[in-house]
Amino acid sequence: MPNEFESYLSTYPPVLTEQEAENLRESIERGFGALPPLVEREVIDPQVTPVAPIVEVEEAPHVYARCNICGGTSHPTFHSSWTSVIQDPRGDPEPERHQMEHVCLDCSENMPYCNHCFRYYTPGTPMTSVGTAEFCPVCERGLTNCADCGCRVHEDTANEYHDEPHCTSCGQVHEDEDREEDEEDEDYRPADVLSYDYKPRARFFGDPKTRLYFGCELEVNWDRGQADKAAQWALDTFNSDGEGHVYLKADGSLTCGFEIVSHPHSWPEAKKLWAQLSNSGPVTSHKSGQCGFHVHVSRKAISALQLRKILVFINSPGNSELVDKVAQRNNNSYARKIEKGITTRLSDDRYEAVNVTNDSTIEFRIFRGNTRPDRILKNLEFVHAVIHFVNTVSYRQLTSEEFRKYVGKNRKEYPNLHAFINNTHTGGDI
Fold first, then answer.
1. Using alpha carbons only, what angle is made at residue 117 by residues 113 and 118, rounded to the nearest 5 degrees?
2. Residues 312, 323: Cα–Cα separation, whole Å
3. Side-chain-facing half-sphere of 106: CA atoms under 13 Å
4. For residue 276, how many other CB atoms are within 10 A of its CB?
5. Which listed site, 48, 164, 204, 221, has its alpha carbon 20 to 30 Å from 94?
6. pTM
7. Alpha-carbon gap, residue 301 to 297, rounded angstroms
8. Backbone angles phi, psi at 30, to 5 degrees
9. What is the DSSP letter of 352?
10. Which of 144, 266, 157, 158 is nearest to 205 (CA)?
11. Close Cβ partners of 222 (under 8 Å, ≥ 6 residues apart)
12. Cβ–Cβ contacts within 10 Å for residue 68, how many?
């Protein structure tokens, strides 16, 4: 015996797509009320304006259902021409949500609409307004008050905080407070900050014929509750061209911070990279007192004698006033200055002012961190100047006076360093 769906199609053979037929079958099987009244009609003349939207499917006879409001006809397969309407639920504690009428889109525009259950209701149905949203009598039962500001909010969409309902705004406030507490935890680390042990394969920026490359590490602390924004700021600042000049790493010496680590860059490219630094980000470096700035240079570009003269110059007690001034901090446990001779054995302590324990680089660890670009460029210029200065003087001329003369002669190459050591720099440090 044919079922209701098959009887329907055999009695009124409409032109349906496979999907439309399946939609109609499901609507009948789920008990969506009686089948719509049908009338058989030929394809409507396009010159005639119908009273309700018409959807044509091929040039063949159509079957149309009638709109219960205006009496117009349209395709009966829940096409875009149709809108489901729930019967007025007043007086019915548990209204049957599947009761339907057929109403065209033109008529549905004048019918009450619930923004919670997304259903239309018959004209005259009392609706409850909350802001710009409308709630039907059924969904209105779920309205409650925000525990903080008292505004109306539906229990299905409210933010639960301490088992109490909150509106979106108040819920966001509590989420921000929780995130700030998490970010103040020493174990918190933004997703973009990699582990301390992370060591990617080096990428070299600049002329391939260059022997002397610079790789830098700037330690920063994020502002309260700004860990994720600080990490994003760092990546946006240095990697805006999509080339991945820097990456971020955790650092055990920082309570709430990370290192900005650059890949090796040639001298021109290093200056260009760090000139992009902005002191407007949600971080501090100099002010915290915890942060440093380390500069790695290619070991293969420096001769054995050149290295020993660098060690003598940096660690000489007679040069400490100049070195400390440029570094903007004194001797400390992370960058100890120990007097050297030209024949002194190379140290295996990585926490000296100049760390020589790495296979591929020599690391200058003396500098205090900073987010002012001119201060970072001053540090880079100092390292570059020292490397070349020691090649121009004898062992006995490795003095601060001779170095000042060298920087003065090359002030165009070292403008930030020259201004700093001659006290013509301005502004505070961050």
1. 45
2. 12
3. 13
4. 13
5. 164
6. 0.59
7. 8
8. -85, 0
9. B
10. 266
11. 183, 229, 230, 231, 256, 257, 258, 282, 283
12. 16
Given CA atoms 190, 196, 198, 204 in this order, what sign does their dihedral have?
positive
Specify whether the CB–CB gap between 284 and 272 falls below 8 A.
no
Domains and CATH numbers, the chain: 4-128 (no CATH), 146-182 (no CATH), 193-421 (3.30.590)
State both tokens at 255.
Answer: 């309570």
Q: Give the chain's length.
A: 430
CA 72, 73, 75, 78: dihedral to nearest 10 degrees? 50
List per-residue pLDDT tens for the chain, 430 residues long. Answer: 455 445 544 544 444 455 655 655 665 555 443 444 333 333 333 333 333 333 333 333 333 456 666 666 554 333 333 444 555 555 454 444 434 456 666 666 777 888 887 777 777 788 888 888 888 888 888 888 888 888 888 887 777 666 678 787 887 776 666 555 554 555 577 889 999 899 999 999 999 899 999 999 999 988 877 889 999 999 999 999 999 999 999 987 887 889 999 999 999 999 999 999 987 789 989 887 789 999 999 999 999 999 999 999 999 999 999 999 999 998 888 899 999 999 999 999 999 999 999 999 999 999 999 999 999 999 999 999 999 999 999 999 999 999 999 999 999 999 999 999 988 655 667 5
